[in-house]
Amino acid sequence: MHQTDEFDDEGDDLGPSRSERRREALEVLDLARRLVEQSEARLAQIPMDEDLRDLVLASRKITAQIARKRQIQFLAKHMRREDDEALGLIRAALDHDRADHRREAQALHEVEHWRDRLIAEGDEALAELLSAHPTADRQHLRQLARNAQQEKLKNKPPHAYRELFRELRELLSGAPEAD
Question: Phi and psi at residue 163, in whole multiples of 5°?
Fold first, then answer.
């Protein structure tokens, strides 16, 4: 008990615990992996110093599994020497890229959802779509949905199915949706 009281009385800041330092190191290692997975064009957009960029590009060239793992660990070691602000900028750039990807995926899922509804439900789904997007061409969408339905029944190539997807993607991306 006396020993614990002595540490409490002194009020020394011992810094982060070993577990906390390990968690931070693993986060930087994950950040290094994410950097190595990026394309060269995307790496050019990420704010980092040239030495680090060269090291990332060199790490990308290594293809042997164990050597690549070792190189990424080496990259993470260099990244841990960077200040927190530089790592924060890199993290923010990569997270922004993930958010854009999620939004694009969500938009494509919405287009697929409407395409499938138009084919399955017909005019009821079309009326709902037109109430949300009054600028849409009713006749063209109805014709594409019917043609896609016929293609599916006759096991024909999905020409109208794809055309309906393109039309819906253009419609949904071009006009704001009414709630």
Answer: -65, -40
